[in-house]
Every structure is written in C-alpha cells, then in structure tokens.
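Propose amino acids for all 592 sites.
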C-alpha cells in the first residue's frame, strides 16, 4: 500500500514528564484456557477473541441508555501520529501500544499510570509507518513488536524487559506494525515491508525464552509446494526472493481444532508481469499448524496481484445456518472489493463458497462460481510500461480496520470505502536493500475521485447466512478508517471519520444513537470491558498515517478539510449521570 510520504504526517514523539507509578502488586496470569474462552469483562487480544469477532457479550450498555454514555476518564499518550492499537484489558489493567515503540500500562478504572515502556530506534532507522497495532498477553508478560524488527517480552507488573528476539532485518526494509498473537506458549508475528522487496513470513517464538520456534515463508522457495506458481527461468527466475506477501496483521485461530488462519499481503513489486504466475501465497489466506508452522491449505483471492490489494486480514471465523445445522465457515470483506464466504473443516481445509462485490471493482470481469478464481479486465491491470486504471484503489474496499461479527444479529459489520480508483504505470526498479522498490514511483500514482461522488466511506451490515446487505450508513465528506465493535445489546461502536466523532448505532437498523467528538480522528479499534460490575467502552483517538495522507489529497483536490488534529488520547466511557464530572488523567510532555 502507499505509505506516508512525509515526516510531517508521521508527527513527533513526546516524552511524558510524569514518572511511572508503583508497579502492580498482583496480576491475573493469562493462560491458554483464558485466551480460548475469554471472560466478558476482559479484552485479552486485539479482536477480543481468537475468531476475530470484535464483539462483546457485556449487556449493561444498551440502546435504552447509550445516550447517557459519558467519558469517565481520558489519558493523553504524549505521542502524535496514527494510533492504531486497541486497549488490551486484563483484570483491571489496561495496556496501550502507541506509535514510536511505546507501551503504557494504566489502571483501567481510573486511568492512573502504572508504567511506560519506550524503545529507542537504532541509528539510521526509518520507516514509512511508525504505528503499532497492539500487544499480546501470555503468562505474566506483555508482548510487543518494535518497528525495528524486535519482539519484546515485558514483565506485566513492572514493564521491565524480560527478553528480546530479532524477527526481521530493518536494514532490508522490513519493519513491524502488527499485534502479536499468543497460542499455546508461542508468540507469532510477521513484518511489513512488501514495497521494499521483503519476502513475507510468519515466525513463532517461545513465550518464556524468546527462542525462535518456526518460520512459515509466505513465498515458497524453489522445490517447496507453491513454488511452481513463480517464474522458474528467465529474467524473473529469482522473483520469489523479493516477492512480498508480508503477513503484517494478526491472524485468527480455531482453538477447538488447533488451526491458525493468517492473511498474506500484496506481491512485490506491484507489477504482476515482473513475476509471471499465480504467485502463491500472495493475496491469500493460509491455514497453518501452530505447533510447527506447516501449511494445511490456502485460498487465493486473486492471482498475480498487480494492484497492492493485500489480503493481510484473516477471515472472521463463523458458523453458517444450513438446513438446521451449524456449518463451520469464514467470511471476509477483502481489499479487492469482494466479500468472500469460505468453508473450513476441522482439519483446516479451506473451500470456496461464494463471493460478491461489496464496492465497485472494475478489474474482475467474472469469478468462477466453483473455485473463486477471477478473470481480469486487462484495461484494469497495470504493467511495466503500461498504465492501468482500476477500482478500488490501493486502499481497497476495506483497508486494515477490523470488521465485526455479532452472533446474536447474525450480521457482519464492515467499514468500507467506495468510489475511489487509481491509475499508475509500472517500470523496472532494481531492488536496493532498505529502499522503495515497488516498480512504480510514488509521484506517478494518482488517486482518482469523481468530483460528483456522493460518498466514499461508510458501514455495511451484512447477513452472513444470506450474504445480503441489510443496511448501510455513508459519509459524504469522509473516508472510513475505523474498526467496529458490536455488542450483545445490538449496538455497534466505531470512529474512523475525519470529523473526530465516536459513534454508536443500532446494530439492526443502522440508526445513529449517540456520538462524541474526541480530540482527534479515531483509527484504533474500540473495545469493551467491565470492572466491579460496571461496563466501559474504550477507544484510542489519534489521527495519522494513511488517513492523514489521503485526507491531504482530498483537501488539495476536492476541497475537504485538511488539518485534522493529531495527538493520542485514550477515551473511556460509561453510562453516567450528566452531573458526574469527567476525570482526566493528564501527562506532561516535552519534545524529544
């Protein structure tokens, strides 16, 4: 995907003057049993559960009282740029990862600081995305991946480093923004960097020692299964070495059957004609054995990716109602603009069920109803020395933000963007380690928006059993960059818009029920947790990265508001009487 081009968009790092409070006296150990069956009052992983639902079974906040939702505390992180990590809550303790390699631990009831971890960058380090998408919990440790390719285990009580492990080589252009995933005493993580010619992979590390356990390569080497889909001879015979397929978002896990499902990113360079073939496992979902990283099966959404339509988000694990029976399945609104339903077996075999466009796609002329393989409109396929114009653009029908599945309504809630297209012409760019080598100059990539377009961003609610849209809400003057949280009381919460609003909707009708304007735009996933019987809704506000880049383009070319305030703040809400004063946990700051 296009990365932020200016340090000004990334923002600056502010170091808090506030000293860390006393370490935690007690901590609730995180076990495999707790991760497989998370308590409603906690939020133990990025998407709330292994299935990737982004759903809370808590029932205190509902349609009848949501208008009384008030901020009960907030905490300024002291960091600018895009905050994309959800708060993670375990037994009253909240952990928030921020851009620029920081983690903050705080009291989830009061917002008081417990400790802060900050990792300095090695000399000469740079990356286009300085964000972080969250931490993982296991045992008595908190795990965070540093941008500089280090996986770090922190003592959950004190924030002190227990161990560090090298995941990738940042001098080659790799960097990490993903939240790790913890399964059976292993911590799994993959890097970003496809546009720098990084060959994608997923690694697993021992949670106690940091020892590397296994590696799954998303682009197979010659002789490995899938290698036949890469060039074997001629100019491009070594394309697999720099083939992309980075696995830069957390996967989902079928805990009952022990199967990992992970998304694989875009091809590198972007031009498919520079790596002829289907290019497995680029733009695919793969099913893996978490014990050793071996592949069980895969499904490729589109072959020979030429559009930067990364498939980094793993499908959400669900069950479909079929003739009175529950059938294991997966559903995913992909970046290429198609909504996929896939079958899955206990052994991890993936099958294609159906697919349909949920936004405008001008590349797929058809999709095989048996295999899911698309046929392409060649005018929409950019090539080396040949321009191509296609919809949706590189940001896709849905970018990285999480969709949400509500098992009570039977609906998938999708944050989407429509009516945006792109054109570019490719060229040969020899790879230089650590430098952009996507086969196209950034300045030659053009985002195309019709001046009369009525909306771009919005939310779609989709019945997973019928695969039909039930309702949608659209935004006339904003893209949608927010993940969605659904609740057992038929509400959904989301941010994602440039007006800085945090909103609650009726999950069945799409009616907006409540809103609150935060200090900045929200691109972090909302969560919910409970302490002493009180339910809280939490989200981190902090605009930046791609949302800021695209907002600048829309301002310059379409007259939209340009300067969306930056600055990270954790906002925590609960149903309160209007007379209850807001508590704000402030931190002092100074320029680093």
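Proposal:
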């Amino acid at each position: 995907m296009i990365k932020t081009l200016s340090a000004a968009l990334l923002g600056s790092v502010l170091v808090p003057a506030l000293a860390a409070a006393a370490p935690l006296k007690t901590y609730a150990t995180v076990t495999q049993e707790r991760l497989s069956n998370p308590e409603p009052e906690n939020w133990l992983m990025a998407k709330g559960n292994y299935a990737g639902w982004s759903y809370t079974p808590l029932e205190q906040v509902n349609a009848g009282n949501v208008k009384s939702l008030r901020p009960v505390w907030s905490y300024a992180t002291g960091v600018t740029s895009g905050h994309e990590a959800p708060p993670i809550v375990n037994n009253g303790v909240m952990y928030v990862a921020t851009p620029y390699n920081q983690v903050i631990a705080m009291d989830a009831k009061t917002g008081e600081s417990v400790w802060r971890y900050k990792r300095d960058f090695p000399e000469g380090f740079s990356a286009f995305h300085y964000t972080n998408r969250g931490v993982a919990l296991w045992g008595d440790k908190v795990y965070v991946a540093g941008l500089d390719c280090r996986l770090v285990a922190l003592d959950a009580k004190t924030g002190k480093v227990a161990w560090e492990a090298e995941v990738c080589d940042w001098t080659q252009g790799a960097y990490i923004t993903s939240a790790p995933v913890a399964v059976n005493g292993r911590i799994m993580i993959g890097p970003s960097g496809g546009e720098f010619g990084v060959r994608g992979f997923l690694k697993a590390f021992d949670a106690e020692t940091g020892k590397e356990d296994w590696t799954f390569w998303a682009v197979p080497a010659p002789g490995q299964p899938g290698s036949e889909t890469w060039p074997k001879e001629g100019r491009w015979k070594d394309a697999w070495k720099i083939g992309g397929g980075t696995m830069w978002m957390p996967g989902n896990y079928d805990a009952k059957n022990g199967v990992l499902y992970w998304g694989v990113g875009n091809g590198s360079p972007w031009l498919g004609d520079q790596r002829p073939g289907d290019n497995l496992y680029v733009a695919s979902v793969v099913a893996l054995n978490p014990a050793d990283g071996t592949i069980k099966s895969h499904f490729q959404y589109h072959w020979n990716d030429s559009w930067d339509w990364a498939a980094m988000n793993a499908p959400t694990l669900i069950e479909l109602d079929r003739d009175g029976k529950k059938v294991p399945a997966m559903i995913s609104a992909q970046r290429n603009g198609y909504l996929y339903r896939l079958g899955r077996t206990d052994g991890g075999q993936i099958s294609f069920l159906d697919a349909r466009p949920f936004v405008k796609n001008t590349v797929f002329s058809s999709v095989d109803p048996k295999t899911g393989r698309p046929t392409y409109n060649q005018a929409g396929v950019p090539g080396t020395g040949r321009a191509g114009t296609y919809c949706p653009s590189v940001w896709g029908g849905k970018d990285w933000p999480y969709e949400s599945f509500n098992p009570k309504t039977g609906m998938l809630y999708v944050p989407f963007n429509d009516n945006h297209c792109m054109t570019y012409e490719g060229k040969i760019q020899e790879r230089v380690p650590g430098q952009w080598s996507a086969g196209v100059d950034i300045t030659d990539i053009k985002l195309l928006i019709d001046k009369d377009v009525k909306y771009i961003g919005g939310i779609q609610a989709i019945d997973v059993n019928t695969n039909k849209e039930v309702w949608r809400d659209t935004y006339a003057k904003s893209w949608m960059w927010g993940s969605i949280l659904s609740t057992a009381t038929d509400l959904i919460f989301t941010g994602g818009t440039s007006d800085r609003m945090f909103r609650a909707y009726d999950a069945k009708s799409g009616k907006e029920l409540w809103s609150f304007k935060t200090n900045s735009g929200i691109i972090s996933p909302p969560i919910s947790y409970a302490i002493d019987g009180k339910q809280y809704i939490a989200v981190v506000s902090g605009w930046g990265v791609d949302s800021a880049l695209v907002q600048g383009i829309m301002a310059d070319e379409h007259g939209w508001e340009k300067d969306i305030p930056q600055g990270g703040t954790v906002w925590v809400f609960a149903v309160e009487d209007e007379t209850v004063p807001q508590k704000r946990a402030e931190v002092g700051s100074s320029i680093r």
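The first strand starts at residue 14 and ends at 16. Helices lie at 7-10, 32-36, 546-558.
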